[in-house]
Write a structure and sequence with these properties.
Length: about 140
């Protein structure tokens, strides 16, 4: 089924526009809330991914977080400069770079669960529980999960 045609397409009413606008709102709010930790929302994603072990290499992080490898490298450089993570070459394959959080990185990551839920809950305060579950279900369907 085609939902958009050249006759009915309006930029500000398109799903893509609204998804980007919603994302930008959350990113701005998250960045502001994480300011005291001296990290951004994107950097938060890296720290939490490393903490949980769902991604441990720059390639895995790029794929998981949807960040191109060039930007990922720059973000990892910043986190390394801040003393939050360390890079090391794999002993099995020298082409692979493994990432680990430093003690300072673990301390910062441990504070995120006290901040991030507040930001998300504030953005979702107009939703009923059923609407929230519908939104999650529909977004999973949209991204193919």
């Amino acid at each position: 089924m085609e939902y958009y045609t050249k006759e009915n397409f309006m930029l500000t009413q398109s799903v893509g526009f609204m998804l980007v606008k919603a994302r930008n709102m959350i990113v701005a709010d998250m960045d502001a809330a994480l300011k005291d930790l001296e990290i951004s929302g994107q950097q938060m994603g890296i720290l939490l991914s490393l903490t949980s072990g769902i991604a441990t290499t720059p390639f895995e992080l790029s794929k998981l977080l949807g960040i191109d490898t060039g930007l990922m490298t720059r973000m990892l450089d910043k986190l390394e400069t801040k003393g939050l993570l360390e890079r090391s070459r794999s002993v099995d394959d020298r082409r692979v770079v493994n990432l680990t959080l430093t003690d300072k990185g673990e301390e910062v990551a441990a504070q995120i669960p006290e901040i991030a839920p507040q930001v998300l809950n504030e953005n979702l305060k107009q939703f009923t529980k059923a609407e929230f579950e519908d939104l999650r279900r529909l977004l999973r369907k949209f991204i193919g999960e």
